[in-house]
Amino acid sequence: MIGEIDVLGVFVPAVLVLMFIAYLLNLAIRTVLARIGVYRFIWHRSIFDLGIYVLVLGLVVIVSHRLIT
Question: Which residues are bridge partners to 10 per DSSP?
Fold first, then answer.
């Protein structure tokens, strides 16, 4: 995995890009979960959303690592 990505002449850490991708995926997952009513059964929505984000970020990192190597 490369350490930095050039975005219009500005070097940003690759992890920041992966975190942004995970955030967008997490946003879509939260929308779907809210529409089907899963949050009625969740005790603490913020902690649940954080857990989902951490899982999605881990999956994004694993997939990006496998695609690059």
Answer: 7
CA 65 – CA 23 distance, rounded (Å): 18
The count of domains in the chain is 1
* Other beta carbons less than 10 A from residue 22's beta carbon: 20
Structural domain boundaries, residue 16: 4-68
The residue type found at 46 is S
Q: What is the pTM of this model?
A: 0.85
CA–CA dist 37, 54 (Å, integer)? 21
Task: Give the CB-side neighbour count of residue 64, counting CA atoms within 13 A.
Answer: 17
Q: What is the mean pLDDT of each run of 10 residues along the chain (69 residues)?
A: 80 91 97 96 96 97 88
Residue type, 1: M
